[in-house]
Amino acid sequence: MTTAHAGGTAGNLPHEPEKATLEGRNKVLAFWLFLGGESVLFGTLFATFLALRNQTNEGPSANDLFHLPLVAAATFLLLVSSLTSVFAIQAMHRGKVALLRNWLLVTVFLGLCFLVLEIYEFSVYVRHEEFGMTTSAFSSAFYTLVGFHGAHVAFGILWISVLIGQLARKGLTVVTAPKIYVSAMYWHFIDVVWVFIFTVVYLLGKVG
């Protein structure tokens, strides 16, 4: 098995090492099925939110709460992190292991910045707006949907961080490449979900 360590360049690895073995192709296919299940789960949460978004129980409404510049900044960070994960996969396909590692690190950093902004947003709602998880049906639906997505982002950050460690220890191989590839698929998925959250929860909340 050809190995390329984190400081070097892949030697005889194929152009798409994540699909070089049957195991790697099966991992990619299985992960598509997993994302299908995740899509159904998020679809259910979106439907619940839309059904409850006007049930404020005389508490704050979406128009009262949301500060779009802050959410737009968080959205920008997450979308850029999706681009950096694309650059990481391109570097992997070119066998540029150090560049792959660096783009993964940037992706993790941007994801952390997104989480910091989201935690700050939640803290403002709870401390200054008295908008907690049990304030209303709207607040419960909001925190469940957005918080569930935030948990996915946190998991993605942890996952990619572990893969960076594996890349340093084991190098880029036909075993580690599928793991990196499916982590990028996961990251794109949570970015797409956030675009829907930004549109359905925040933008519609302000104009509605």
UniProtKB/TrEMBL annotation:
Sorted UniProt keywords: Cell membrane, Membrane, Transmembrane, Transmembrane helix
GO cellular component labels: plasma membrane
An example Gene Ontology biological process: aerobic electron transport chain
Membrane topology, as annotated: Multi-pass membrane protein
Domain Heme-copper oxidase subunit III family profile: 29-206
UniProt xrefs under SUPFAM superfamilies: Cytochrome c oxidase subunit III-like
Record localization: Cell membrane
One Pfam family here: COX3
Example of a GO MF term: cytochrome-c oxidase activity
Transmembrane segments: 29-50, 70-91, 103-120, 140-164, 185-205
The family this protein is said to belong to: Belongs to the cytochrome c oxidase subunit 3 family.
PANTHER family: CYTOCHROME C OXIDASE SUBUNIT 3, CYTOCHROME C OXIDASE SUBUNIT III
Protein name: Cytochrome B oxidoreductase
Native source species: Paenibacillus riograndensis
